Please model this.
Amino acid sequence: VAVMLRDRAQVLALEPDYPQLLGLALGVIAPWDSAKDGDDAHFEVRAFIAGDGMQEDPVTGSLNAGLAQWLMAQGLAPARYTVSQGTAMGRAGRVAIERVGDDIWVGGAAVTCLSGHLTL
Model:
């Protein structure tokens, strides 16, 4: 389920009741206002996944891919834009979205937080 709000501040101010969200995957998005939010991104996104190992995902490629299809089909986003995600968690995630023909490409920089080897 995805919900679009009018203002980035509304997205950042959300304080979910996680027990009520158990079993749901909820995405929330709002456009940036460059006059007050800057020009670092076009949208702010949050992904709530309570009960799936963590309560909120700091950066979600699959959610942003689905949102891109909807936003572009409705004429709400250009063919290339940037999403800010993770802000409410103290992260500065940026997701690059681009439509190339019929395809939606999702990209961005990543940081390795854990690496290792497993021998079975």
User: Anything to note?
Assistant: The mean pLDDT is 92. The two ends are 38 Å apart (CA to CA). The first helix runs from residue 8 to 13.
